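As a warm-up, study this chain.
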Amino acid sequence: MKKVLIKLVRILCVITIILNILGTSALFYLAHTQNLLGFMFQTWQNNPFNFSNYDVLIINNAIIFLVVPILILIFVKNPKKG
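Now compare it with the structure written out below.
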């Protein structure tokens, strides 16, 4: 049962990483077409912990949802075969 749970967590982490990359790419492409990408990054660089600003919140969420699954994949060990 533990092996199945570990494999399920690893699969969900990979799916989360893929969806995060696709969603973030789409968001940045949309912001680029509206000429807002520079404004988003400038706002985030001025105060990355201003969670009341929606642009900052989007970038922080994209970073968190990319870093956390990668850390889970690194630190959750593969189940032993046998």
